[in-house]
Amino acid sequence: MRNIIIFILIVFGACNFLKASVVFGTAKDYAGNELIFYRYIDRITFTKEEVFRLQIDPEGNFKTEADIEEITYVFGEFGIYHAYFFVEPDKEYEIILPQFAEKKAKDIFNPFFVPEKVHIGVKNLKKTDLNYLIIDFDYYYSRYHDLKFLDIYSLGLKTDVDTFINEINKRYEYADNDYFKGYKKYRIAALKNLATQKQYEKALIYAYFTKDSVLHDNPAYMDLFNNIYSDYFDKYLVSKNGAYLYAVINYGHSVKRLNMLLSEHFELRNKQFRELVMLKGINDSFANKNLTWLPLLLTLDSLYISTDYQKHKIIAQNIADKTLSLANGTIAPPFELPNAEGNMKKLSNYRGKYVYLSFANTTTYTSQAEFDLIKNIYARYKGYCVFLTVFTDDNRENAAKFMTDNNYDWDYLFTEINSDVINTYKVSTYPTYYLISPDGTLLMSPAPSPTDNFEKYLFNIIERSRVQHP
Predict the structure, then answer these.
(1) What pLDDT, in 10s, does the model give residues 311-320?
(2) For domain 336-468, is the CATH number 3.40.30.10?
(3) What does pTM read for this prediction?
(4) Which of 105, 182, 290, 297 stands the most exposed, by the fewest C-beta atoms within 10 Å?
């Protein structure tokens, strides 16, 4: 009897731990499609991971389960949309997908395209449900913010911003959801920061961040945090203590000294919050290049080792992964893709020679314009360098015909426009180029295009190689 009770407790505990949420509905516009929904692992690097997939049958019906341990902002990027909703553990959601709208070619190849953010509808919501609260709040908040933005920015507290804040707080007095309370609190804090033109930003940080817990996964909290601390270290470098920050990172790589320096600021006396600021500062500095790459990485590694917060270890690892991904000297991410005949070829098949890797689409003018230049370079260097193009064309037969008709006889493979390969190589414009060394490491990431005098770089690299390895 005792063993049976233990078994029941174990099974019950396991079921309780999984906390599967159910997502279902009907969307005939999407019949036969598969939609992938993600979550952000952190909101500094915006690294994402898959949460669940919706396999939509020919009639448009779908149903799936997702293991959710805490309230999670989940989103799908399909068509023109960034479609999202909030999922809580162990709940059912009958969702209403936005009307299908496919991306046009001009949007697909536009690196500045911004998807339309849509809060996915959920059927049978109560006034106390999280999605209802956020949808309702965002409607009133955004309407006021958009209508009054210029007045608030120029006139500040002389506008009716205080009246609006009082009204919107009163409107949601009944809401007892802690996640929503945090969401509302930090959207209002962002409005206050705008109204005061950031003149009292340190006091605002102290009131809203220093004295409270860090809400790593709350978009309102992290949106305001990212806005306030954008390029923080780079701005710090030109302050009176900038030289000390430079020395701490460039020569000491010391998290302890960095902690001591930043803790002198009254608004950064919360250890957990201060570490988040450090992570944000390091992350942004990698892109801005005012601090040297290797010392930043060593400082990040020191923070990873010393932090007491598991979430900060995850953020530090994500920053390192993002920074090292596609960095010169790192291994070129492997892939295996089909050629025109459907035969699979691996990137590793080309080891032993330089590889000029391009990602292109024959429907784009720039790809077409540069192929004649590639043809000329290929004719001169094909004994020393492999030329390999990965196409994202929907019509592979047309792409193959384009290559044949123009006598472009270097190797080419195919992938989808939203494939893992395209995401891994961070392709946002077509064409995009990389030069890979004979040992499989990235030599130029990204590499110059043919119109940017790539041939000159390739000639110099091959000549140096000849001298070193006659």
Answers:
(1) 999 999 999 9
(2) yes
(3) 0.86
(4) 105
